């Protein structure tokens, strides 16, 4: 049976490049995004250029009924063995001025949709002992004081969620990867925003996705495309692990006692 990859946020940017790269690897695709017209154009191009089967599934994952349709497809389509959770939004601005409705939409897309789509496919992948889940998070998950408030928090959830999934599903033969892009030239950034950022800090989307896929091929569980030396991140993980023996004790630390 030919396998398929389902990619969310596939109509542009990171999702579009993932679709292109996987199609060129011979992977059949199911593309999910809000814009039917953009999906149709991308699907038509990829069919001509690569010969793979490309199906579109227009959906706004911030809407419960659309999310449910995509979940149902992940549960029922035995050929889908790869999920790329890419759809997401940012741009909430200062928290004190934030629109609560926008924040709710951000959380629904960046957290709820990612969780529920992974939950829809995970039982089948675990039962098969194979498959791949790729969750796009962000380097802001590691530096919540360096951006806005809610977006980094949502991406920190995705990172922690992915690490936990790696423990549970990895033991069953499922590959689970977290990808942490830095600033990437996509529609999530407006040109005037990028114009104020040094060029050496902005990665082109093609290079970012190619690096992420190389990391997947190399067996990385967490891929940070911009990071020159993975030993730096290993040091961070080791320091975090060193805290664990002292994070839960019967009594409070001496400094809190009077």
From TrEMBL:
Ketoreductase domain sequence ranges: 3-192
GO molecular-function term, one example from the UniProt record: oxidoreductase activity
SUPFAM superfamilies in alphabetical order: NAD(P)-binding Rossmann-fold domains
Pfam family, one: adh_short
Keyword Transmembrane in annotation: no
Domain of life: Bacteria
Keyword field: Oxidoreductase
Gene3D superfamilies: NAD(P)-binding Rossmann-like Domain
Family: Belongs to the short-chain dehydrogenases/reductases (SDR) family.
PANTHER family named among the record's database cross-references: ALCOHOL DEHYDROGENASE
Listed name of the protein: Ketoreductase domain-containing protein
């Amino acid at each position: 049976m030919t396998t398929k990859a389902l990619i969310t946020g596939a109509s542009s940017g990171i999702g579009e490049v993932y679709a292109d790269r996987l199609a060129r690897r011979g992977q059949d695709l199911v593309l999910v995004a809000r814009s039917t017209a953009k999906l149709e154009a991308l699907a038509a191009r990829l069919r001509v250029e690569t010969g793979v089967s490309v199906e579109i599934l227009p959906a706004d994952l911030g809407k419960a009924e659309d999310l449910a349709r995509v979940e149902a497809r992940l549960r029922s389509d035995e050929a889908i063995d790869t999920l790329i959770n890419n759809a997401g939004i940012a741009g909430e601005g200062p928290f004190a001025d934030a629109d609560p409705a926008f924040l709710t939409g951000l959380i629904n897309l960046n957290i709820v949709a990612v969780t529920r789509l992974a939950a829809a496919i995970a039982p089948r992948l675990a039962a098969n002992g194979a498959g791949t889940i790729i969750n796009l998070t962000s380097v802001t998950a590691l530096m919540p004081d360096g951006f806005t408030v809610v977006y980094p928090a949502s991406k920190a959830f995705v990172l922690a969620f992915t690490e936990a999934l790696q423990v549970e599903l990895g033991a069953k033969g499922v590959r689970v990867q977290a990808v942490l892009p830095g600033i990437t030239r996509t529609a999530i950034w407006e040109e005037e925003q990028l114009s104020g950022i040094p060029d050496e800090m902005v990665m082109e989307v093609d290079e970012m996705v190619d690096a992420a896929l190389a990391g997947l091929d190399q067996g990385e569980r967490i891929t940070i495309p911009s990071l020159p030396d993975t030993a730096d991140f290993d040091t961070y993980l080791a320091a975090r692990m060193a805290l664990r023996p002292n994070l839960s004790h019967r009594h409070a630390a001496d400094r809190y006692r009077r």
